[in-house]
Every structure is written in structure tokens, then in C-alpha cells.
Task: structure prediction
Amino acid sequence: MYTTQMDAARKGIVTKELKIVAQKENFDVKELQELVAKGQVIIPCNKLHTSINPNGIGDKLRTKINVNLGVSRDCKDMDVELKKVNEAVAMGAESIMDLSSYGDTRKFRKKLTTECEAIIGTVPIYDAVVYYHKPLKEITSEEWIDIVRMHGEDGVDFMTIHCGINKETAHRFKRNKRLTNIVSRGGSIIFAWMEMTGNENPFYERYDEILDICQKYDITMSLGDACRPGCLEDASDVSQLEELITLAELTKRAWEKDVQVMVEGPGHMPINQIEANMCIQKELCKGAPFYVLGPLVTDIAPGYDHITAAIGGAIAATHGASFLCYVTPAEHLRLPTLEDVKEGIIASRIAAHAADIGKGIPGAKEWDFQMSQARKNLDWETMFELGIDSDKARRYREMAQPEKEDTCSMCGNFCAVKNMNRILDGEIVSIFDE
Ligand code: SF4
Result:
């Protein structure tokens, strides 16, 4: 009856996934269907992902967040990674990108698409290098595409495909020197492959074949930005913008085959360039959802990059990005621990929520209203419950118990909230001798 969610929407079919998303977002089904038909909302859900609880991504919906995890040479234990996945979902991540690069990656991937309710994304290019177990140069064009097919069969909902960098982009990149070259892992792999073989990027050259695979399983194409800036110096440069133009063309071609698309974005970027970048992307890609990796607004804070990314993410989402990739404090330094993952998720969720308030997403501001009400009432239990990280809020209060239960140790008797409540209730406020 239909191939993809986009195809269904274009045919006026209301899928069960569309209904669920409309209900979750408090959105009119018909309106949502129109946005899916136009490509401005995506519902990534591979037909073979049996455990999915679908979510929509688009700038008129609540901002979603992605968490990158996966088995690697330095963290081989599948159970440890699965624990992180479950914690991430419990903490509100709508999407998990499985970036596994070691061992039986297929087993882990299949476990995710049969047990995990989050949207599952992958980067087939990483997996190809592990799967074929041979030098990069010897991987054939056919083999790159076979990996995409295999991920489709495994039930992956979206894939980052580095198809925006082609021979033309590569020439331009070499002509226009950058401070940090290509920092995208997938981008650097395919650039190296192109340089060593002299061949065109197979993900670009055989894009139509990839679209056919995506159409068959309803995989959302996440158009990878190989040339995303890796430092402020390289932001909004020739390579980044040239690639974005190619991605806009590829977006259009995907839509012609009813394939759902999102476009990946920066990267590192000065705060004053973010809004313009979002506007350019939205115009060029006709409102396709934008998936940003940060953007990190300064390069000088290793150990705190969950904060630099949250600042950029909040601004990006306010101006049109709809999907934020989390960044942990371990970024640029090491693999994240469970605690790092947690901090990254919270930071990213704060950014997403702040943007949702700015965009007027229904229900976003109400959460803050309730928290403020609890604060005014000095109702600590409700404050803990409403807090984005209830455990931390509770722990902090318990660490420094106030003398008077109805204040906190920050101001004690000088508690403005308590004193204002009392004076407005006609009580005497003394402070000094209380
Ligand atoms: S003591 Fe100070 S910080 Fe604590 S609740 Fe009262 S006004 Fe707020």
C-alpha cells in the first residue's frame, strides 16, 4: 500500500506511527501528515525495527536528542554499552546512534532493533571498515553499498551517509586550506578512500541505489556533513557551504523517491554565525529537519564540551534545528563513562527544552510554570519531581541541610521567597531574631 512514511502521507494514508506521533506532540493528524508529505517532519522507523516507539523530528515539534554509543576496541563489553543505552532512553533520549566499531557489530545492532524503543541510527561507513577486515583501499564500491543494505535488513531507522563529499568538493577542500581539515570520522574515511583509489565517492555516485534500499525498508537518510567545521576558524567556510549545497540537491532527489531525509550540520561554530547557518540550511533544503552536532560555540573548554554544545544547540534549535546530537564532557578526550553520558544527556535536554520554550512548542513553558509555582511555595518535593535531574537536585539539598526546613542553605533566614510570602500574607518579618 505504501513504501515509506512520506509515501503514506503523500497518499493520504494515516499510519499508526503518524497517529502515535500526533498524539505525543498534541498535533493535528492532518497537519502532521502534510508536514511529513513535504519532508518537514520525519518519522524514522524501519519496517523491521520491531520494538520502536516512534517519534517525529521537525522544527514544529518538540526538539529531540540523540545519544551516540557503541562497542569499541576500548569498550568491548556489549552489556556495558547496553546498560548505557537503557539508561540513555530512561533519561529521555529519543534516539541512539550505534557507532560500534569492534567485534560482532551486527549482533549488537540487531539487539537494539529488537529490544530498544528509541530511534536507532548507524553510520555504515564505520561498520564497513570493521566488517570487511581489510585495508581501506581494498574495500570496493559494491562493498560499501552492501553494508548499507545490511544495516537496512537489520532494522536501522536512519543512517548517516557521507554522500555530500564528492570529487568536486574534495578538490575545493584542498584548494581552500582549513585549520583542522576534515574532523568527521566518516568524512575522513571516505576522503582517504577517494584519494587512494582515485574513484568517486560511491555513496554519491550510487546514491540512487542507496535510495532504493532506504525506500524498501523506510530508512531515513541522514545526509552526513563530512566537511562540518572542527573549529571556529573553519566555520561557514567554502568546504562546509559547498557540501551543504550538494546535500540540498541530494535532499530533493531523496524526496523524489519518497525517502525521508534529515541534514546533518555543524560542528564548531561561533555563536553569531549559528542563526544564519540555520536560515541558509532551511532555505536550501526546503525545511528538511536539521540534525546538529553541537554546535560547539568555543574550542577552549575540553572537559566542558557538553556545555559549549548545549549553548550552541539551544541557539540552533531556536532557529530551526530539530534534532540535537548530545555531547559529553569527555568529547575530544576519551570514551564517555556512564556518568559522562548522563551529563551529556541532561545538558542536551536542557538545550532542547530551552529552544522549545523559545519556539512556543505547546507544553514546554508549562513545565517551567509548575517549577516556579513549586519554588514560590517552597515545595521541595515537587521541585525534585519536576527537576530535569531529580536525583541531583535531591542530593544537593541533602548535602547542606538548612537550619529552617522551609528555606535552603543558600540564604537561610534571608530567604526572599519565604519572607515575601509572609509579608504578603500580613505576617511580621523580622529575619534578625528568627
Ligand atoms: S533560601 Fe534563597 S535560594 Fe533558597 S529558596 Fe530561599 S530565596 Fe531561594
